[in-house]
């Protein structure tokens, strides 16, 4: 893997990806942050050596480099999921590349369903902790200790300082936010009524199909990270209606301006 990481990194440096400070992973329906970036370089995933390809129709599939809020950022416009047929190493390969390029902080966004029925569709939730229900680990491969401690500590996977800062930013801008536990499942099917009940019992406030593998690798690399969910549907097992993916994307789009404000203002402080 180290040989591949070196080749990928050298390719991106040759394309103008010059010492980014912050890495950003954009989730479903949250791509307009790109409009606020002064872009100086970009690379399609299919041109980057050893990168997977984004197969989800609403994930664009580009790595973007530029300036946002006065900081150099590298942005994944489109991420990878287990349900696309990739393994954990594929999914998290871009995190290792952004780290190799030089990022010091990682910001992650996603769309998720609200298990906690006190939370509503359109709310933004800061992820304070997570439950990995994806059936594996991005650290379970031969030679992982070359990249960091095999038994990575996960007692505090999300950076407390960034959480406190983004909470203050939200208060200053009158943005209502929640904070809770994110459960990551394989997908791509949505959950049954019984599965939603189980998720509530085990302590999840929201459920999605991403983020946790990236966060595990960030912790493995001692890379401070923050993750935020846009809650796009309410998962009430006693009143469960069919979910339209287009509706999920639309809800994420309506919440996007708040997410852009939170991320942009946070980046100014880093």
TrEMBL record:
A Pfam entry, by short name: PNP_UDP_1
E.C. number: 2.4.2.1
Record's keyword terms, sorted: Glycosyltransferase, Transferase
Name of the featured protein: Purine nucleoside phosphorylase
GO cellular component, one term: cytoplasm
Pathways per UniProt: Purine metabolism; purine nucleoside salvage
Coiled coil location: none
UniProt keyword annotation of Protein transport present: no
The keyword Transferase belongs to this UniProt entry's keyword annotation: yes
Role played: The purine nucleoside phosphorylases catalyze the phosphorolytic breakdown of the N-glycosidic bond in the beta-(deoxy)ribonucleoside molecules, with the formation of the corresponding free purine bases and pentose-1-phosphate.
Domain Nucleoside phosphorylase: 22-268
């Amino acid at each position: 893997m180290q040989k591949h990481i070196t080749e990928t990194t050298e390719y991106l440096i040759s394309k103008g990806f010059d010492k980014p400070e912050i890495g950003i992973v954009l989730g479903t329906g949250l791509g307009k942050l790109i409009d606020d970036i002064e872009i100086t370089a970009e690379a399609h995933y299919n041109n980057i050596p050893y990168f997977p390809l984004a197969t989800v129709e609403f994930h664009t599939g580009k790595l973007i480099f530029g300036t946002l809020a006065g900081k150099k950022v590298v942005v994944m416009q489109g991420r990878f999921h287990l349900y696309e047929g990739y393994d954990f190493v594929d999914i998290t390969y871009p995190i290792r590349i952004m780290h190799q390029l030089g990022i010091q902080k990682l910001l992650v966004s996603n769309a998720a369903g609200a298990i906690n029925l006190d939370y509503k569709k359109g709310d933004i939730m800061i992820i304070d902790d997570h439950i990995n229900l994806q059936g594996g680990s991005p650290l379970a491969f031969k030679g992982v200790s070359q990249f960091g401690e095999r038994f990575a500590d996960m007692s505090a996977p999300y950076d407390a300082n960034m959480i406190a800062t983004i909470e203050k930013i939200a208060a200053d801008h009158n943005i209502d936010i929640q904070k809770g536990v994110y459960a990551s499942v394989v997908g791509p099917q949505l959950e049954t009524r019984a599965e939603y009940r189980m998720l509530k019992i085990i302590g999840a406030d929201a459920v999605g199909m991403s983020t946790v593998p990236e966060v595990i690798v960030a912790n493995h690399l001692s890379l401070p990270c923050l993750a935020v969910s846009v809650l796009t549907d309410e998962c009430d097992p006693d009143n469960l209606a069919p979910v339209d993916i287009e509706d999920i994307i639309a809800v994420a789009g309506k919440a996007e301006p708040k997410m852009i404000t939170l991320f942009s203002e946070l980046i100014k402080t880093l």
